Amino acid sequence: MSVAITGGTGFLGLHVVRELLRDRNTPLILLSNAGSPDALGRLISFLELCGTPAGVRDEVPARVTVVEVDVSVSRLGLSDADFRRLADQVDAVWHCAGDITLDGEPAALRRVNVDGTRHVLELVSAGRREPVLFHVSTAFVAGARRDRTAFEDELDPAGGFENAYERSKYEAEVLVREWSARSARPAVVFRPSILITDRPPHPALPAHPLEFLNRWLRARRGLLGRGGPRAGGELPEVRIPGRAEGHLNFMPVEASAEVMVRLSRRPPASGVDTYHVVHHHDVPIPVLLEVLQHLVAVRLTLVPASSGEPAASEQRVVRLFPGFAPYLHHKRRFDDTRTRTALGDLPHGVTVDLAYMLSGLQVTVRC
Questions:
Q1: Taking a C-beta distance cutoff of 8 angstroms, is the pair 13, 28 a contact?
Q2: Do residue 169 and residue 22 come from a single domain?
Q3: Which of 13, 125, 290, 339 could bridge to 96 as Cys pair (CB 3.0-4.6 Å)?
Q4: Which of 97-106, 306-315, 323-332, 344-353 has the lowest mean pLDDT?
Q5: 161: containing domain
């Protein structure tokens, strides 16, 4: 069984590839972004950093083929002959590639997330083997409805979206469902929550969402004006709108990849199987705020959205979290009944708390 994967050298994709490599009989095709440096070398470096046995790493050049593609264009940017050859040799396609820029330009997000999905659907439609599609979406297609439980069989835009990223992932899921209904072919949709790791950052590894936010903040520290401790060691206080009783779901990427690959081994039903891939315990918004204030060197205080006109310094802080600030108001849960029913035991032994999150940012806790 030959498996192709887009985004295989991204934050999630690398972990999915590592899980897929556990089956020594599965040849893999990395559909790597055209022009990106040495996809095979990055994969091997990742496996070494993760402690993958040398025997598995040594097999990678023989087991993994790299095909350079551009998901944003038709036929993935390949010639007709190369596209047909690729389509005819795959039994399963994992679509992990995506743009996760929360405040990205809608056109740029649609080009990768929506058009990219459309072009992957072209691939799974063109081959003789009718490969199974495993599409990575996000739990946040649930949109701007902040208080309710989101269920796995729902895909409803009525409540709107917090940002263009969520909308683009919703539109991509719609394409998958329409394709499945039109072709009478099965598809599997995974909806992970916010993926994270406690592994410290490394230049050879892609950034996870909070690390990406940390890099963004470091590049824009000047926007805060006078940050850092005042005389006496106290940090300046800045109010930020949010809900003290709110919570967000963060899922360790290692566990997320394991869950997805285990689910992929189940025979797909007719139509679209959708699975929430989430942690059993949400992170309280006040804990997330502690993480953020370690990054911006100010003391953040949650206040209701109706607490009056924010000061200039407070407006600057909110602008430091583009696309992310609305999540400080969330108090939503993601139902994962289908996932738990399918797998029974889930790899949730890790607690995602303040220490875990700061470890993944290599931030020292201030006493």
A1: no
A2: yes
A3: 13
A4: 306-315
A5: 3-193+251-277
